[in-house]
Amino acid sequence: MRVLLLQQCIGVSNPKTPPPEAIVSLMLSIPKSPEAQVSSKASFSTILQPRLSPQNPRTWIIFSVLIIQILLLCNLRTVPSSIPSPHPATTTADEATVHRTTRALDQCGSGKIFVYDLPATFNHQILQNCDNLNPWSSRCDALSNDGLGQPSAALAGLIPEDLLPAWHWTDQFVTEIIYHNRLINHKCRVTEPESATAFYIPFYAGLAVGKYLWINSSTAGERDRHCDMMLRWITNQPYFKRSNGWDHFITMGRITWDFRRSKDHDWGSSCIYKPGIRNVTRLLIERNPWDYFDVGVPYPTGFHPRSKSDITRWQEFVRWRPRHTLFCFAGAPRRAFPNDFRGVLLSQCRHSGESCREVNCAGTRCSNGTSAILETFLDSDFCLQPRGDSFTRRSIFDCMVAGSIPVFFWRRTAYFQYQWFLPAEPESYSVFIDRNAVKNGSLTVKAVLERFSREEVRKMREKVIEYIPRLVYAKSKHGLEGVKDAFDVAIEGLFARFKEQEQPQFHKWK
């Protein structure tokens, strides 16, 4: 009987505890087998009946003790259920909240950006005066579409039709506009400067000085005017004063030498030599390799993918494009330069027969709006990249976006310029030829390039194609989902740089 009641109490057969009256009734009415009844009548009937009689007080004592024991056991079983436990739904909701917070932190884990609201005279008003930014012609078309320029309708038939909307005639000096538009729409932009780790100064320094570079009558004061005004404004900002500019950055949309005038009668602006900009990181299409604060970023090309699928589609197109020419050169000689190396390359190209294809860019024949350069790069295994008016040239990126392998003659043309964007092993994607050996006739470009096997060429081209996303600027102001373009790589590099500067071993001067 006790075993049965215990089983009922602990939930073996019935989780409900029977009331005391039922226990008493059950104990008094336990059925017996016929044999047990006979045996009981023969041996114990006379003894037990008086003792178990309801009228006997001992019976009630026994029953009371037994009932108390059963109730205690039952209560012990129910104690854990009285302790509150986490509700499954609540736990799931909490975890979801944590996961959402973690994702948000992951997206901006490297840092957050505050974009200064500069007076319009430093950016928007410069764009509004696009008719007056060039002494020869209007630049309004070149600066349209948020700096991407006019659509490249002339490329129809040369590139896949579905990719035509991703191509524009983009000017090489518009990174200031591109970076500004991307930063004001950046997922990690903050409006409270106290939560920022990087501060962006949206000053269009290159566009501001550009109109004065080609006017002989311009004064040093005119070329420095916008920069001086900007520095007076920014150096009065509390967060600039706090860091002395170390966590600030700016995009300067020309080569660094356009901002490094040493004497009043020399070329360009002296903006980089101004004290207020000394510690500000500067994004330039050509850097001074010996200046820590100069960072080289890719020249804008005409390809502005709208999505990751545009990238993949273009990579497949250039990967399987038939190439009939060993190498090519697009450029014009610099006859005013003594021992002009471009003239040497053009001469070698012309003497290489069908192995080389030339695009003579004398005058304005290679200005924005021609498909001849892209077509030449698409048809060639290698593209020659001597220095331009400075050490770099936009053609490097036009060449690589077309899947052609660049051939360099100065290490400062690419290797010392764009370390954040190009492979660490130069030989994996490019060829370097000693220009002096070419000049003195001991080497010909054709002979050097013919030594590479088809498999070696394929591997180098594959590396070039792999890096195309890091060399182009997306069409969307929000970037591309699932792939990093040149802008994303630059911002990641800035965050890493500012983090490095906060390490104890890093020395900051005032």
Automatic annotation (TrEMBL):
<dbReference type="GO" id="GO:0000139">
    <property type="term" value="C:Golgi membrane"/>
</dbReference>
<keyword id="KW-0333">Golgi apparatus</keyword>
<dbReference type="InterPro" id="IPR040911">
    <property type="entry name" value="Exostosin_GT47"/>
</dbReference>
<keyword id="KW-0812">Transmembrane</keyword>
<keyword id="KW-0328">Glycosyltransferase</keyword>
<dbReference type="Pfam" id="PF03016">
    <property type="entry name" value="Exostosin_GT47"/>
</dbReference>
<keyword id="KW-0735">Signal-anchor</keyword>
<keyword id="KW-0808">Transferase</keyword>
<dbReference type="InterPro" id="IPR004263">
    <property type="entry name" value="Exostosin"/>
</dbReference>
<comment type="similarity">
    <text>Belongs to the glycosyltransferase 47 family.</text>
</comment>
<feature type="domain" description="Exostosin GT47">
    <location>
        <begin position="108"/>
        <end position="440"/>
    </location>
</feature>
<protein>
    <recommendedName>
        <fullName>Exostosin GT47 domain-containing protein</fullName>
    </recommendedName>
</protein>
<dbReference type="GO" id="GO:0016757">
    <property type="term" value="F:glycosyltransferase activity"/>
</dbReference>
